[in-house]
Each structure stands twice: as C-alpha cells, then as structure tokens.
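Q: I'm building a small set of examples for a reading group on sequence design. Run inverse folding on the following structure and report the sequence directly after it, with nothing in between.
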C-alpha cells in the first residue's frame, strides 16, 4: 500500500508506522506500533495528516477509525463496530444469516466440552475457528475428529491463541476453489477492486499448518470480472445493507474470502482490510491513483472513484523464516534484494525485516519478504517471480515452489 500511495501525484508526505527498511525508501518511518491508537492519532494531529490509511486489522478492531473521527481526521477504514466483521467470526455469521448470505452451517461455543461433543456427533472433515483475531492462524480444517478435538483443546483449554480462542465457531467444511474478493466500500456502495487466490498452507500441495499466506495469484483462473461482480452482489452488497440497517455502516476495504462450491459461491469470512500477500498481487496491477480512491472511501463519495487495473497477471511469493508459522529463525542476513528488484516485472516488498548494526538487512519476523512479478500471461508472471526469489540470498528462507501451479493448470 505504501508503494502504491507513494506513486500518487497528489501525495505531499507519507508517514508509515512502524515501517521497515523497504518502506523507508517511500516515506518517513515512525516508530509507533500499528495498534497504538493514541500514538497514531497524536502523530496525525502533529503532522496535520489529511488521510489515515489503516493496514492491518488490529488497530481497526481497537477503534482507530473512531479515534480519528473524534479528532476530525479522515480515515479510510471501518469503525470499531463495523470492524467486528473481522474481529468476531460469530458476528459475521450472524450478519450472513440476517442478510441471507450463503455460508457454511455453523455453531458457536464458549466451552470446550459441548464443542467436543458437537464434533464427535458431526464427524469430520470439519472447521474449527477461533472467534477472535488470531493473525491468520486461528482456523483449523480438521480432517479427523481427533484433529478437531486437538484444535478445540488447544484454543479453549490451553489458550494457545489467547483471548481469540476463548470461544470458537465450528462449521461445515466447504469444498471447492477458495477465492479472495476485494472491494472498496462506503455505506451501501461497493466498487470492485479485483480478486486473487491465496495459498494458505506452509507446504507444497497445500500441506502443513495454515499461515497468514504463502503466495497469491491475480486474477484467479476462471473467475473473471463478471463472476467477481456477481459475487459482490451475492456476498458483499447485502452485508453492507445489513450494516447500514443496524446503524454501523462499513467504510473501507472489504476482503471476502469465498469458496466456489458446487452450489455456487459461499462466504468463508470477511476481512476488513487488504490481505497479505493478496494486496501485493493486486496493487502492482493498479493503473489508477490509489490515494483519491482511499479518500473517497473515507468521505463516502466512492461512486465517483476512478479505479483501473491492468490486464496483466501477477504472482506473489512469500519468503518466510525457517520455523514459521511456529518459532521463526531471526537475525539471518539477507542479500540480493537489489538484484531481484532489478529483474523485469519484479517487485520485492519487505515485511519482517530490519537493519542490523552494520546496516545489513536481516530477518525479523515470520513472513519476511514478498517477491512479486507481473506479466502478460500467468506463466510469465510466475517465472519472473521465481527468478526474483532465486536472486535473493538468505540461508533461513523457506518458500513454496508451487505458487500458481494449480491456476496454471486450470487456465491451460
């Protein structure tokens, strides 16, 4: 997002909190945590900021947009009440039921014993979700009852996810292709951004534990603009109308995770911001100016926004630290970033990085880099992205070697 905003001819100054070595080249990094709402509002006041653009979900659920509104500062993100669409899985399910949005059958539990009894009666496969925010790691698609029992005990008895897992949502396991659909929203208006397909699991062939995302392709194979608009009509616009009816209108970016089932698209979950790594795959295809589009979200004039994307395909590949999504290795020196970024069509975005005492880029997180590329075909974009990965030297790096492989087969 910082890179896309930095391209705007309307931009006068850009501050990124907390930022990283990559964003330092785009604006001014400020050492404020992304969820430190009072400090963020104080910064916006001090610098006379015209627009606050939230990145992750935590500050939104913590009330960043509300605090900005109280201070008279425009914010391109939803209120705390509207951010419950991501902050609570059961809230989303209640909205779906009220707005007749197709989704998986579900039940909510506040104690482990009835949850365990439920999965034993229902059988597997079955999906266990922490009701609260869990940084993309609160969903277990259990293939066996034993696996479901283990997930319930870990979340509810062992507090593996803290407060997020105090209650759980258990739902039927949908089958089909999973798609990420994005739209700018303001009250009852939704304008399509586009779609991407994420690769959630750590290992090739969709094996291993879920992560925050190991790579994405955009657009997804077989899901063109007409189908994306139809999905907006089915899964997003009724939600917006229900939120307006409740007096908690939504303004911001909605990311609808959906499953293309045999019975049509069904909602998996809402996120109230750009996803990662989907944002990278989407925004490198953006041709129009992102900044006025975000401003129109904040002031409710979205229907007049100019939003255009290229017809190119894009692929994003996450380089994570060895040990992720458990305990990632930190401190490894990363080289070759400039060489990778100089390749045709390749963009390298920093996430969990920092500079050490010698000025070197080192790993400082789980998902550390995202290497992206565009191309006139999916095959070319994918090849360019993997060329970018090959140019980077980092001993602790792990990545999937099959990002976009299934989409490539589907489109051939």
């Amino acid at each position: 997002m910082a890179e896309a905003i930095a391209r705007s001819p309307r931009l006068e100054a850009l501050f990124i909190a907390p930022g990283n070595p990559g964003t330092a080249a785009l604006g001014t990094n400020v050492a404020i945590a992304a969820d430190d709402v009072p400090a963020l509002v104080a910064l916006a006041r001090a610098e006379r900021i015209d627009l606050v653009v939230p990145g992750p979900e935590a500050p939104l659920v913590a009330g960043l947009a509300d605090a900005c509104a109280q201070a008279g500062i425009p914010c391109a993100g939803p209120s705390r009440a509207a951010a419950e669409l991501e902050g609570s899985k059961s809230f989303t399910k209640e909205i779906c039921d009220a707005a007749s949005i197709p989704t998986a059958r579900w039940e909510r539990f506040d104690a482990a014993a009835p949850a365990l009894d439920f999965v034993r009666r229902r059988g597997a496969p079955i999906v266990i979700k922490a009701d609260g925010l869990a940084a993309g790691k609160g969903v277990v698609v259990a293939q066996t009852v034993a696996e479901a029992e283990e997930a319930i005990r870990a979340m509810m008895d062992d507090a593996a996810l803290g407060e997020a897992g105090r209650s759980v949502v258990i739902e039927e396991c949908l089958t089909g292709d999973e798609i990420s659909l994005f739209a700018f929203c303001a009250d009852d208006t939704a304008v399509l951004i586009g779609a991407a397909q994420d690769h959630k699991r750590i290992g090739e062939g969709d094996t291993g534990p879920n992560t925050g995302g190991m790579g994405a392709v955009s657009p997804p194979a077989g899901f063109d603009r007409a189908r994306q608009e139809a999905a907006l009509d089915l899964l997003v616009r009724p939600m917006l109308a229900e939120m307006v009816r409740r007096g908690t209108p939504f303004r911001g970016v909605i990311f609808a995770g959906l499953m293309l089932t045999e019975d049509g698209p069904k909602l998996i979950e809402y996120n109230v911001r750009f996803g990662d790594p989907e944002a990278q795959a989407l925004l490198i295809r953006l041709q129009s100016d992102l900044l006025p589009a975000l401003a129109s979200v904040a002031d409710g004039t979205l229907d007049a926004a100019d939003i255009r994307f290229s017809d190119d395909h894009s692929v994003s590949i996450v380089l994570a630290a060895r040990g992720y999504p458990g305990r990632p290795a930190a401190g490894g020196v990363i080289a070759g970033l400039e060489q990778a970024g100089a390749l045709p069509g390749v963009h390298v975005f920093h996430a969990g990085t920092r500079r050490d005492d010698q000025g070197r880029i080192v790993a400082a997180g789980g998902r550390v880099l995202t290497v992206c590329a565009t191309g006139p075909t999916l095959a070319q974009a994918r090849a360019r992205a993997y060329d970018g990965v090959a140019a980077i030297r980092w001993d602790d790096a792990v990545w999937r070697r099959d990002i976009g492989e299934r989409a490539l087969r589907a489109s051939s």
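The domain at 2-70 is CATH 3.40.50.20 (Rossmann fold).
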